[in-house]
Structure prediction request, 243 residues.
Amino acid sequence: MTMPVAARGTHVLLAALLALAAAAPLAAQVGHAPDQSPFHDLTTRQTFTVSTGYFTGNEANAGVGWRHAALIAGRLDTRLGGPIDLYVSVGVAGSSRYKIDTSLDSATRKTGPFSRTLVIADLGLILNVTGAKTWHGLAPYIGFGVGEVLPTKTETDVGGYNAGTNFSMIPILGTRIFVTSTLAARVEVRDYFFRYEWPLRYFDPLDNNGNPITPPILQLGTLDKQWTHNFTLTVGLAYGFNF
Prediction:
């Protein structure tokens, strides 16, 4: 399978910042007296973060995908060694979606939006750009995770579309802004990159008597699978500790 453009771009970005992360701790030791250095050691190995933010969603070509929503999440990071952290995150978004009844004409077949709660769960690796240090109180990072976006209740619409669990690949960009050695604000952008699959009836809808309905929901020639970007922006409070 051909790698999506977004995934290829993520790999290039990760490689570039990996080189930067390797060089940053060395730079911290050069050109500054210890008490004047802009770099300071991170003194904790674990971080718990509570965040709130915005899930942009993506209704996708058919117009039935998950829509924009407020998001709240909890997250635990632990340092594995060097500049690498492991994270686990669970969030909840009060989303919504439209439904399509493929047996009705184009004027009446789309209804909603209907409110749906999404659970967003993932884990992955974080690369701290400045290593195990802060720079002027900042600890920027990139990362990549995998997980699932799943409704608390799955459903199958008339016509065969199933609104269920979506496996996600998640490039991450963020920073912690330290106000004390253990307390920081966290600002982060993610892209939940996942796929929708469209049923045959979206391309060839029929009424209850078996007659074709025009226009279809999706034109012939449209792919029956669609990768979508679903960005999130979150702001949170991070507390560092050791155990």
